[in-house]
Amino acid sequence: MQWEQLWLQYNEIKNYQDKEYFSILYQMDDGYLICNAVEEMTRAAKEMFARSLVVTKIVDSKKKGIILQITSDTGLGEEGYAITKEGNHLVVSAYSQKGILYGVFHLIRQAKQKEPLTTPSRNIPANKHRMLNHWDDFNGDIERGYSGKSFFFANGKIIVDERIVDYARLLASIGINEIVINNVNVRGRAGELITSEHFLKLKEMAEIFEGYGVKLFLSINFAATIEIGGLQTADPLAWEVQNWWQERAKIIYDNVPNFGGFLVKADSEGRPGPFTYGRSHADGANMLAAALKPYEGIVIWRCFVYNCKQDWRDTVTDRARAAYDNFIPFDGQFADNVVLQIKNGPMDFQVREPISPLFGALRHTNQFLEVQIAQEYTGQQIDVCYLLPMWKEVLKTRTYCQEKEDTVADIITGRTFGNANGCKEYGIAAVTNTGNDKNWTGHDLAAANLYGFGRLAWDLNLNSEDIAKEWITLTFGADELVQEVVLEILMMSWEAYENYTSPLGIGWMVNPSHHYGPNVDGYEYDVWGTYHRANHAAIGVDRSSRGTGQAQQYLGENAKLYDNIETCPEELLLFFHRVPYTYQLKSGKTLIQHIYDTHFTGVKQVEQMIKRWDSLQGKIDAKSHRRVQERFMRQLENSRNWRDQVNTYFYRKTLIADEKGRKIYE
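Structure (tokenized):
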């Protein structure tokens, strides 16, 4: 096979106490998803235990086996499952076929880790929507893709092959239930995906995904009425526009019955939207929602909207304010099948940001959390950066919108506003990191982020270390040294990346456009509004009540915390405050010394990771080991460039020497 199986490689397992259960499978119900579950169990039994799985509906009470059965237990919901031991049998029960499929993958995951299968389990996903956003272009490129070309598109054609089946298996194994296959920046012929030319292939692909519990969505061009519809306008309040979208939705669902809906990037970074016609985001989203409503489709409307033509001399306009300023006035005005998709922070997937102030402030609107698995600003799958600890920090952050159940995790699961305010569509989405590279994610260790996102989206209570351990065992096996070393590398990688890149929440400082490698002033005089405003005396953007006021977009204790330089968390200090280089941090160091120290430390951490990885030679697959070694060499060069350029930049600005006398270029 030309591509790898990641955590679904079923290598031989010896001396496993529960292997006898993989002898007989009692399939009590039929259906497309159940058949795929049976096929997966058959494959696992053969490859892990060299057993030819017997599949039957006739239960033999004397022989160990696994029973798959649909139950009337509505408490499990549409996707939950229960695993119990009844006599000689393990019983996987679920209210739906989806639950059976997820339960089978649970058993296989347990077996690969040599965990006992007989431990009772009842699993219900925390999030209703667990979505991947692909930024794949119709020509086969991937915007912000760091692992090859698209496996969905090539030369303006849709690809449907065995790789799509394996991808669906991978997604189902970690509980992903929705996918957007094309870029949110819908340009050129990509807008034609919703035309009859492509319905046959889309239906074929949607059916494959549906067989693994994954619903297909498309990104659309808000101006499709002009681009492909022959109209002169895309005004959402114009009857001809509304009528065109209603007819288009009917055609789509007639041809792709299990279609999920639309993802929309509008009035952002040059994309068309309702602003052109003096209309609001609610006007635009609700028009599309009305078209999808008869088919139970949803509109996912991204909140990444800001004025990207900002003058660097303007110290009042603040990009970090934009999402809040654009969407809070319309809270409660969106249709019940519209979801606002909100990035984890107010800027753009930086290595360190506060949460978006929309979380907690939006009380009457469906909402998704959006994170980025693709490491656009965190190393681009060249530098290892395990993102689960970052996401866990976001999820556990309190918003102070009420006394209890006010964290981001509470909000995106519907616990906070779902019942009282009638909002019903909640969940989490991620910009994914997959491409057609043999190992799917470019950097072998980057697969931990894809796996981890799925597991976390299903169960927000899982911790990042346990998820990492699970992924390591499933991917590399149970060798103790391998587990120890890879876990150490993953768990230190986010801190290391932050240390050698941009300090204390300031972000950016990257090369414009491609966003890899240091360029301290790369965006400083640009139109994109990502300034650090460093001079010889101070650095940082004053977002306190004395500055842009962005800190006051937060609620209660957070507004007080961020507004005061003395109480602001130091990891976000330069995000919210303009700080002199001589300012003393809680560690006793000055700000400038902290910058020097962290950048030297970050390089040392990379060197430590390389040394630890080298110790695994001969312990894991040679191709995988070599690929990671090559990436580490590039990461080491990148970290040194960051260290030297950042430290030199600030030394030249301040003429304050490093207290430890290390090499800084003058």
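The chain has three domains: 6-123, 129-476, 500-541+578-654. The chain has 19 helices and 18 strands.
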